[in-house]
């Protein structure tokens, strides 16, 4: 007989999920968005929460409802080849190519770099990232303790530290948000801009990867019935994403109100450092270091665990779990030393390509009971989305790359021709059309 989970079980699983999700980008991007959106912060926050909270929750729901054993199994509904391509691309993006290196660089640049001489930054980053990934490696090689370390130790440290900062901001605000000017980037379509800003958290992509960790944890607690696993997954996901929404709104407010005293910061990490120093003085450096490092470290451990376990499943005869951990930790260390700005620049085009495909996969999986999970719906929806995702990828490339490859004419043509292209949402209507066509074909096809 299945065990019935208690409230404390849901809290611990939800805390685990929150700890895996909430890392580097989750801290710096909402604060920077608040600074840019100013008095339009609530509209921008609504868009941000859809992609940074709503989609990750739906991703967890999709994995629970679809009853798939992995992200690869879900993506393989399109075709085995596509399943392998998309799974590898997604895991490398939220893993050693972008997200994991970013955890170290955000920790360093926000909590330590402001207090170092310019000439020392590179060598200091090498030393810091070596220590950061050394500890990450130690924890990742012991995956059985991930629930304890992330859910019961690191999360409370992070939440207590961040809550203290937010309370001070609300009690002694730095400025009246209604009077903060809106920066040019957010003066038109602040909701859509916030929507795209949520891409940078990578959480909807991570949801497809972390869903299986949550499902495995629920099974380890004694739940085996598929319907019960789906229900428990949804409850745990709802707990973690609600907490994320509250923290995001608070961070956006912190960023917007900071404009009452300070000017625009170079990035959200710098803004967080300035705000922390304002409220806590010299102690602010310590508070900020604890907040940032705890948030980023727990995410690095979760990501290294998830990607290593997935690659063992995808390539069972290549490397062991421990060997994959060493490999991905080494790659992450190397890329981290490119610096935060370079990592963000390189990640944006990839996210603009992967996100539409992830969103359509999530929604198709959720509605799969309506068409008995037939592959034709997944295939046609993805086919209609894919070409527009490629256009978004080209448009998001660094301008010098776009010019070198003579691709600028594609963006110019698309801006004049394709609805919602300038908002990064040109794929929405084609995806809906593809889903409807696929749904009709699923009913006609025996």
Please sum up the structure shown.
The protein is mainly α. 76% of the residues lie in helices and 0% in strands.
Structure description:
It is built from 19 helices and no strands. Helix 2 (24-37) runs antiparallel to helix 3 (41-66) and helix 6 (99-111) crosses helix 14 (321-336). It folds into two domains: 7-341, Amino acid/polyamine transporter I, CATH 1.20.1740; 367-446, no CATH class. With 446 residues, it is mainly alpha-helical. Component of the transport system for branched-chain amino acids. InterPro entries: Brnchd-chn_aa_trnsp_Livcs (IPR004685). Belongs to the branched chain amino acid transporter family.
Largest sheet: none
Strand pairing plus helix content: what structural class? Answer: mainly alpha
Give the % helix.
Answer: over 70%
CATH architecture of the largest domain: Up-down Bundle
User: Overall pLDDT, averaged?
Assistant: 85
Q: Would you report the number of β strands?
A: 0
- Which runs of at least 5 residues are low in confidence (pLDDT < 50)? none
Q: Kindly give the count of domains.
A: 2
**Number of helical elements:** 19
CA-based shape = globular
Indicate the CATH topology of the largest domain: Amino acid/polyamine transporter I
């Amino acid at each position: 007989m299945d065990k019935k989970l208690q409230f404390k079980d849901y809290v611990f699983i939800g805390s685990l999920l929150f700890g895996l999700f909430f890392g580097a980008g989750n801290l710096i991007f909402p604060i920077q968005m608040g600074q840019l959106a100013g008095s339009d912060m609530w509209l921008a926050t609504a868009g941000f929460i859809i992609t940074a909270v709503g989609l990750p929750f739906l991703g967890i729901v999709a994995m629970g409802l679809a009853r798939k054993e992995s992200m690869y199994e879900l993506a393989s509904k399109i075709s085995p080849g596509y399943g392998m391509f998309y799974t590898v691309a997604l895991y490398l993006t939220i893993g050693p190519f972008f997200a994991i290196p970013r955890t170290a660089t955000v920790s360093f640049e926000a909590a330590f770099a402001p207090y170092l001489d310019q000439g020392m930054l590179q060598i200091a980053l090498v030393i810091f990232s070596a220590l950061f990934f050394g500890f990450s490696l130690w924890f990742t090689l012991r995956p059985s303790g991930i629930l304890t370390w992330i859910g019961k130790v690191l999360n409370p440290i992070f939440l207590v530290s961040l809550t203290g900062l937010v309370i001070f901001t609300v009690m002694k605000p730095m400025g009246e948000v209604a009077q903060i000017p809106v920066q040019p980037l957010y003066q038109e379509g602040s909701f859509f801009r916030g929507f795209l800003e949520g891409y940078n958290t990578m959480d909807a992509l991570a949801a497809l990867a972390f869903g299986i960790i949550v499902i495995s944890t629920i099974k380890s607690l004694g739940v085996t019935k598929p319907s019960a696993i789906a229900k428990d997954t949804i409850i745990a996901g709802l707990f973690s994403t609600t907490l994320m929404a509250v923290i995001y709104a608070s961070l956006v407010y912190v960023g917007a109100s900071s404009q009452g005293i300070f000017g625009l910061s170079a990035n959200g990490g710098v803004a967080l450092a300035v705000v922390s120093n304002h409220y806590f003085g010299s102690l602010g450096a310590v508070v900020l270091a604890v907040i940032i490092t705890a948030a980023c470290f727990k995410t690095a451990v979760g990501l290294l665990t998830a990607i290593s376990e997935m690659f063992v499943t995808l390539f069972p005869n290549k490397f062991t779990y421990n060997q994959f951990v060493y490999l991905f930790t080494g790659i992450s260390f190397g890329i981290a030393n490119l610096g935060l700005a370079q990592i963000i620049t390189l990640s944006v085009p990839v996210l603009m390509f992967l996100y539409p495909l992830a969103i359509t996969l999530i929604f198709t999986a959720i509605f799969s009971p309506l068409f008995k999970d037939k592959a034709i719906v997944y295939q046609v929806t993805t086919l209609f989305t894919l070409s527009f995702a490629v256009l978004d990828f080209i448009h998001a490339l660094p301008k010098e790359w776009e010019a070198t490859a003579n691709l600028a004419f594609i963006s110019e043509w698309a801006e004049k021709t394709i609805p919602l292209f300038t908002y990064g949402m040109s794929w929405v209507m084609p995806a809906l059309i593809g889903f409807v066509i696929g749904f009709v074909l699923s009913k006609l096809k025996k």
